[in-house]
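Now for one record:
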Amino acid sequence: MTSLSIHLMRHGVPEMAGRLLGHCDAPPDLDGMALCVDRARSLRFDHVVTSDLARARIPGETIATERNVALHIDPRWRELDFGQWDGFDPADLAADALSRFWDDPEANPPPDGERWSALCERVGAALSDISAPTLVLSHAGAMRAALSVLCGMDHRQVWAFDLPYGALLSLRLWPDGTAQITGLQS
């Protein structure tokens, strides 16, 4: 029984850091991009997959070029769609609505935004297409959705993981569908 290694990396610091960027296409900060490129140097992978959003895509392109590996841009690895909250500083939103969202993102999605189950569904579909050692450059929400799908954790459990900008989560996937976390670097 052979396993497959995947590495999930959160993009580095973007412009407009600290906001609910969701599907906003904020470009990466140069230092944040350099952190991602540097962290990737010690990893083994045959492919790079990135979200189509610039803050993940641009460092992913740089890493794939540096390592001379295939690059695939996949919008299923986007962050949760925060709908009307996209681009806002959380401090500028109604505290009670934001609290309800963090407590139960399935029952209380952002206005015109995405439910937690929809994020998990699209990330799960993206995961099923990975068949070789891969580095996925994505977003904290998508990484948490991957943990939920692969390890059977609920939203409260995955939100307990600290995934700052540039965080790296390594997993081993087994043919029977089970997964094992092999490393977390924040």
In short: Residues 4-185 form a domain with the Rossmann fold fold (CATH 3.40.50.1240). The longest helix spans residues 54-67.
